[in-house]
Specification:
Layout lengths: L15 E6 L5 E7 L2 H7 L11 H7 L2 E6 L3 H15 L12 E7 L8 E7 L7 E3 L5 H14 L7 H6 L5 H4 L13 H15 L3 H17 L3 H19 L11 E9 L2 E10 L2 E10 L6 H12 L9 E3 L7 H12 L4 E3 L4 H21 L2 H15 L8 E8 L7 E8 L2 E2 L5 E4 L9 H18 L6 E5 L2 H13 L6 E7 L11 E5 L13 H35 L6 H11 L2 H6 L2 H5 L6 H21 L2
Parallel strand pairs: 7-10, 10-11, 12-16, 16-17
Antiparallel strand pairs: 1-2, 1-3, 4-5, 4-6, 7-8, 8-9, 12-13, 13-14, 13-15, 17-18
Helix pairs in contact: 3-10, 3-11, 7-8, 8-9, 14-15, 16-20
Length: 618
């Protein structure tokens, strides 16, 4: 039997982990909470949770088990362990079936060297790993550069064991010759530490060491060795100059971008060492119930496990509610502080934006846009209970700034894509002296749908920009025109604002008293916003064009002695009011019909009005 929400009152009001199970005892979802009773209750409040997959999850829940712990940190660790153990369908779980390329240094070797390796999932805890690299070619190029810069051995362990004489690489100054005792362990380790610093992006420290050693060798008259050091310095400096992705941070940081489309999520991880981008990884998830901050918290717990290297900072697109607990766990794992935060400005924000862009680009490159839009429209039909599939959508918006030149726009989208050939703009006439949004909406709706009915060109869905009042106007007009079969909705932005970044949108539907609220990440809401914002853009653009024309016409109308014929001659000759203003007396004389008296009047009048005209012609 389905889980009875009344049982929520029996759950403990303590921190811990909850396990949602189906009728067969299979774990569907694992979550953590500061207050188990309060958190679980939210899943069963109608309309409280707008996440797409929550209704599907709730419908399958048969029982909910809880495990109480003493702190939020313990809940975080337990949740991570249970997710990895049971692999619930509705949790984000890192897949370990991808192959990664990295450079590895095994410090347990007597004479460590750098090797290119491949691994799946997390690397083995048997050495230092650098990467992963975006491609095998990038890793090989880095390894070749290291072989030129630092004289570490390049031979296998077997060859090292049987060789008694140094190879050609020693003669080429590419190897210190540990096989034949040509260097001490201390000297070799010195080269090794420089290699590690270079791989960590600490180029300046390596250069400083090399310059100091070169100076010391020169003072000791060891010019051949000093020349070798100089060549290494030149190689490193050239590498730094040609580095394509270079940020002046000078720190080790990971930037995590997240892109969500309904229950599908793409996470992109960019790896910066010493301020330079050295690698990237990405992860895609499906059927995700977790909110973004929950998913990111779970991702951090799964990804940053020894021996995966943890940087000093991790940049996230949103702040974590359990940030302190996450940082505490990472500190206990790595024995150094890892700052987890969402930068808001500067270079760190620019790096985070790069990760966000990568996440979106990766998602879209793996998805078919037409299929995604079709899925979104089907979801719109289901969520908003439309009787027909909204293949063609039209949206009406009006624009009335300062009560002048009232206009309206109609934009059309077919199968989720812009259908600009169907766009229409309207000059409104019946709004009277005072601005009247309802009258403006009634006029444009009547004009548009009277013609659409005559031409049998009706949409599947009509969106009006506004709330319940605009919706009622649309219902009245379509009823008056005896039009049926068209779905109608009003889309109102919070406080009537059209600026971006507002989260709450209200959807008003026929026959419903209360508006429908969709989560800000809902693909349906994002598409509706895109359509509404396009209608607003077209209306504003048309309104500005109309005001600009009216400004030009009235400015010349007000000049004494300049009638319709002379006004037309001036605009035809110069092409715009601005060029008329800038024209000299000789240029004005070249216009047919313009007299000396006209020239004097034009220059005086237009120069006095120039500042005002600039303000009005925004």
């Amino acid at each position: 039997m389905p889980f009875d929400p009344k049982k929520n009152s029996l759950l403990p009001a303590l921190p811990g982990v909850y396990l949602m199970k189906d009728s067969h005892g299979e774990i569907l979802y694992v979550g953590k909470a500061k207050n188990l009773r309060q958190r679980v209750k939210q899943y069963f409040v109608p309309g409280r949770d707008g996440r797409l997959m929550v209704p599907f999850l709730v419908a399958k829940i048969d029982q909910i088990d809880t495990i109480v712990v003493t702190s939020e940190k313990e809940a975080l660790l337990l949740e991570n362990n249970l997710i990895k153990q049971h692999k619930p369908r509705y949790n984000a779980l890192l897949k370990d079936d991808k192959s990664y390329i990295a450079l590895k240094i095994n410090l347990n070797d007597a004479w460590p060297t750098v090797k290119l390796v491949r691994y799946r999932g997390s690397p083995e805890p048997d050495g230092l790993y650098f990467g992963p690299y975006t491609s095998a070619q990038a890793a090989r190029q880095t390894l070749e550069l290291l072989n030129r810069l630092f004289p570490l051995r390049q031979c296998s362990d077997q060859e090292l064991a049987r060789r008694t004489r140094p190879c050609l690489l020693y003669q080429m100054k590419r190897c210190a010759g540990p096989c034949a005792g040509k260097c001490t362990k201390e000297e070799y380790d010195h080269h090794l530490q420089r290699t590690i610093k270079f791989l960590k992006g600490q180029d300046k420290e390596v250069l400083k060491d090399l310059y100091e050693e070169m100076d010391r060798l020169s003072e000791n008259l060891e010019f051949e060795k000093a020349g070798q050091i100089l060549r290494s310095i030149q190689h490193i400096e050239k590498t730094i100059e040609t580095q394509n992705v270079d940020r002046p941070l000078g720190i080790d940081a990971d930037a995590i971008g997240l892109y969500r489309y309904g229950e599908q999520v793409m996470v992109a991880l960019l790896i910066f060492r010493g301020g330079r981008l050295i690698g990237s990884r990405h992860y895609d998830f499906e059927h995700i119930v977790e909110e973004d901050h929950e998913l990111l918290s779970s991702f951090l717990m799964q990804h940053y496990e020894v021996p995966v290297e943890a940087p000093s900072e991790i940049f996230l697109p949103i702040a974590l509610k359990d940030r302190d607990s996450v940082e505490e766990v990472l500190f206990s794992r790595y024995k150094h502080k890892v700052l987890v935060h969402a930068p808001q400005r500067g270079e760190k924000k620019a790096i985070l934006d790069m990760a966000q862009t990568n996440a979106e680009a990766l998602f879209k490159s793996q998805q078919n846009e037409e299929a995604l839009l079709e899925r979104t429209l089907l979801e719109m039909q289901e969520v908003l209970h439309f009787a027909r599939y909204p293949s063609r959508i039209e949206c009406i918006d009006t624009s009335n700034i300062s009560g002048t030149e009232p206009v309206a726009s109609m934009v059309a989208f077919t199968d989720g894509f812009k259908d600009s050939k169907r766009y229409r703009t309207y000059r409104l006439k019946s709004t009277g002296q005072q601005p009247d949004d309802y009258a403006a909406m009634r006029e444009v709706l009547m004009r548009r749908y009277k013609r659409a009915k005559e031409e049998d060109d009706l949409p599947d869905l009509l969106i009006v920009d506004g709330g319940k009042g605009q919706l009622n106007i649309a219902l009245e007009v379509l009823e008056e025109l005896n039009i049926t079969g068209v779905e109608i909705m009003g889309l109102a932005k919070e406080l009537g604002r059209h600026d971006k970044g507002m989260s709450e949108e209200k959807i008003f539907l026929r026959g419903r008293k209360e508006p429908v609220l969709l989560t800000g990440k809902s693909p349906v809401l994002l598409l509706l916003q895109k359509i509404r914002d396009e209608a607003h853009r077209v209306a504003i653009s048309f309104h500005r064009k109309r005001r600009s024309k009216r400004t030009v016409r009235s400015a010349l109308d007000d000049i004494p002695g300049i009638g319709p014929a002379k006004r037309r001659a001036l605009l035809t000759h110069f092409g715009s009011l601005k060029k008329v203003q800038e024209a000299s007396a000789d240029e004005l004389r070249a216009v047919k019909g313009i007299t000396e008296a006209n020239i004097s009047t034009l220059q005086t009048f237009l120069h006095e009005k120039s500042s005002k005209l600039k303000r009005l012609s925004f």
